[in-house]
Q: What sequence folds into this?
């Protein structure tokens, strides 16, 4: 007797197995193209080269696949989530707008994937409510694209485990604070070199950063905002910047002395921003676009989850003002 099991729980348990995502295509006896998203794909044999996958018997493509001698398996790339969703919808014209190349048996071949296998159907087995197809691989292609991942009903990205040994040897473990500190220090090295040429240091960079988010602030306000970096600003630091012609001090309406950018200071802040962007590009050299996005997303989460107890004046809106230079820059670029 077959054991009775809870289908939902069974599906959930199967979802614990992480897979890639494929689209399997064929050419039906009716001359139409068929295809569907499948993660039941697996390797079977090296010699002869064989792969397998299984197709639900209720699939609208069942006749096409059981009646065909060939199929092609496309291992989807990380940016092909939309392709996966398109081929997972029953009934829809999945090939609309696509002009596929043709493989063995006129099977449609899709582009943009990580790897592609053209197969001859070697065996078909009954597999309960699925049919299992074993294909002999006649031809295959690989493309340098990171793969799309499927786990627990969700798409995911592959994140290679880092070579932690490199870091822990010198820095005593992979404590997040160490990693963030080291990454930040190294990221800023080219900017520090630029500042050093002008006889300036980190603290001056932090002052210029605060000013670039909003011009015309008192020394006290600058000191309060810069303090988030752990630096203690005093009037001497501001006077050094004035001495280099980067800022000027003016009396505000209430008589308080306010720090403003000079034209040169504004240009220098832009130059530093360009160096920062270049340094970011260098730092992300070993990351693909999605990994870089994930890194920022996770850091934002860390920032959010550690924000408890942060003084009110360090809220984002206290840093940003209407007259920030990036806004002005964007307006100038538009004009
Ligand atoms: C990630 C993912 C993996 C899937 N794997 C399979 C599979 O291995 N076999 C299968 O028959 N259906 C699978 N499906 C479901 C089919 O793609 C879906 O039922 C599709 O609508 C079938 O299309 P058709 O009825 O036009 O053949 C999967 C769906 C997704 C989103």
A:
């Amino acid at each position: 007797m077959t054991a009775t099991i809870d289908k939902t729980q069974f599906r959930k348990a199967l979802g614990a197995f992480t897979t890639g995502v494929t689209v399997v295509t064929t050419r039906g006896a009716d001359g139409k193209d068929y295809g569907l998203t499948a993660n039941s794909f697996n390797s079977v044999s090296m010699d002869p080269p064989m792969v397998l996958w299984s197709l639900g018997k209720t699939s609208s493509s069942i006749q096409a696949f059981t009646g065909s001698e060939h199929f092609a398996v496309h291992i989807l790339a990380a940016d092909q989530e939309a392709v996966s969703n398109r081929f997972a919808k029953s009934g829809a014209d999945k090939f609309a707008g696509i002009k596929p190349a043709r493989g063995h048996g006129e099977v449609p071949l899709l582009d943009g994937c990580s790897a592609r296998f053209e197969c001859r159907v070697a065996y078909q087995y009954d597999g309960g409510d699925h049919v299992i197809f074993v294909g002999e691989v006649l031809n295959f292609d690989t493309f340098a694209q990171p793969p799309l991942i499927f786990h627990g009903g969700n798409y995911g990205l592959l994140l290679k485990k880092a070579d932690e040994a490199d870091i822990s040897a010198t820095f005593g473990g992979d404590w997040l604070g160490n990693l963030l500190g080291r990454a930040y220090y190294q990221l800023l090295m080219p900017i520090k070199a630029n500042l050093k040429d002008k006889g300036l240091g980190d603290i001056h960079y932090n002052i210029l950063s605060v000013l670039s988010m909003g011009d015309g602030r008192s020394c006290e306000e600058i000191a309060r905002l810069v303090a988030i970096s752990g630096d203690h600003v005093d009037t001497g630091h501001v006077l050094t910047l004035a001495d280099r012609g980067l800022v000027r001090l003016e009396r505000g309406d209430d008589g308080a002395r306010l720090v403003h950018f000079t034209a040169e200071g504004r240009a220098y802040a832009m130059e530093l921003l360009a160096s920062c962007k270049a340094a970011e590009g260098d730092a992300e050299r070993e990351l693909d676009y999605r990994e870089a996005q994930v890194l920022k997303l996770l850091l934002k989460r860390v920032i959010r989850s550690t924000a408890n107890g942060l003084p009110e004046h360090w809220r984002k809106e206290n840093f940003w003002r209407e007259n920030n230079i990036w806004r002005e820059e964007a307006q100038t670029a538009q004009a």
